[in-house]
Design a protein that fits this description.
The structure is a single chain. Helix content is 33%, strand content 15%.
Length: 199
């Protein structure tokens, strides 16, 4: 199953083909592919090259570790993410290591790393579903995360399953057509809300 975006202007196929399924196959992810995705995150840009992101990784091959990471997701996400072969907890360090000052770009840079990882995954035939629905305090406690590091999101990574295999409440989301706001609603020029003129 694929859901290619119907874009208003041509974009790269990796961007058009990236989407976040709820139905994951139990097919294992090759460790080399997982490492390649994390390598792509490694090379994401960041403020002062701080690279504030960190990941806690779990695969279904290690049932105990997988359950620990799964338990850090909110229940609604556990319902479908438990089928994914790989789970990641995504964290970002809030202060610069070079001077201890707050890093205002920390969350932004975690997002850049997530995008790099997602496009590499897409290039390898994998799918990534990102989640804000986690329990940060539980993650901090279970994995002894330092106080200046924020567990912020999670990812499920794997191969998409056949339609109809996600929990019932998510099946319509998996089959619905993808949509986005038009550019005129968020690209402005002379003042806020005034659409920029684009070719």
């Amino acid at each position: 199953m694929s859901k290619i975006a119907h874009t208003d202007r041509p974009i790269h196929e990796l961007i058009a083909g990236r989407w976040s399924p709820y139905a994951f196959s139990n097919r294992a992810v090759d460790p080399a592919d997982l490492a390649g995705c994390l390598e792509a995150a490694r090379w994401a840009p960041s403020s002062y090259n701080e690279q504030p992101w960190s990941y806690i990784v779990a695969t279904r091959d290690d049932a105990e570790q997988f359950q620990r990471v799964l338990s850090c997701l909110v229940e609604a996400n556990q319902a479908w993410a438990k089928e994914a072969p790989v789970l990641l907890l995504c964290c970002t360090r809030l202060n610069f290591t070079r001077n201890g000052e707050p890093n205002a770009a920390a969350v932004h840079d975690l997002g850049l790393a997530a995008a790099s990882l997602s496009f590499e995954a897409t290039a390898r035939g994998l799918y990534v579903h990102q989640m804000i629905g986690i329990v940060p305090d539980r993650a901090t406690e279970l994995f002894d995360i330092p106080s200046d590091v924020r567990p912020l999101t999670a990812m499920a990574i794997g191969y998409v399953a056949e339609p109809g295999t996600a929990p019932e409440q998510y099946q319509q989301r998996d089959t619905a057509q993808r949509s986005r706001k038009p550019l005129k609603e968020f690209v402005f020029s002379a003042k806020w809300g005034e659409a920029a003129t684009l070719s």
